[in-house]
């Protein structure tokens, strides 16, 4: 930790050369001197630089390739791990039931007899 004691933290906003000793000072500076800079027009999230904002913008602009496969759910995500989080948090019990059904089969059954399927919620 001692290696970081004398480090200077530079403001990364365009055309700003200010430097700070602590991250808290940098946060205060950004709140006072750069309000509204590099803010996402879709969700309002603020970023330290245009590069981070541009990367974030892909979330709103990119096609959502990872669609929820649960019947009746129209959620879609641009990252596979986000879909995984959605599946576990919103459809966890349904997923567990499907996994339990597959555990009843042996390896031969799964390879030979696995058709494409859709998991449907039971009322």
Automatic annotation (TrEMBL):
InterPro entries associated with the record: Zinc_finger_trans_reg, Znf_C2H2_sf, Znf_C2H2_type
Gene Ontology cellular-component terms listed: nucleus
Matches recorded under Gene3D superfamilies: Classic Zinc Finger (3.30.160.60)
One GO term (biological process): regulation of transcription by RNA polymerase II
Organism the protein comes from: Thermothielavioides terrestris (strain ATCC 38088 / NRRL 8126) (Thielavia terrestris)
Gene Ontology molecular functions: zinc ion binding
Start and end residues of each C2H2-type domain: 9-39, 38-65
Stated name of the protein: C2H2-type domain-containing protein
Main localization of the protein described in the UniProt heading: nucleus
Keywords, comma-separated and alphabetical: Metal-binding, Nucleus, Transcription, Transcription regulation, Zinc, Zinc-finger
Protein localization: Nucleus
Regions annotated as coiled coil: none
């Amino acid at each position: 930790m001692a290696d970081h004691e004398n480090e200077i933290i530079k403001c990364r906003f365009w055309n700003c050369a200010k430097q700070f000793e602590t991250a808290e000072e940098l946060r205060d500076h950004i709140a006072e001197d750069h309000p509204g800079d590099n803010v996402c027009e879709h969700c309002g999230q603020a970023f330290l630089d245009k590069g981070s904002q541009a990367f974030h913008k892909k979330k709103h602009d990119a096609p959502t390739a990872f669609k929820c496969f649960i019947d009746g759910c129209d959620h879609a995500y641009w990252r596979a791990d986000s879909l995984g989080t959605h599946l576990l948090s919103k459809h966890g019990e349904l997923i567990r039931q499907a996994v339990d059904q597959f555990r009843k089969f042996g390896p031969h059954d799964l390879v030979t007899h696995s058709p494409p399927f859709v998991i449907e919620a039971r009322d």
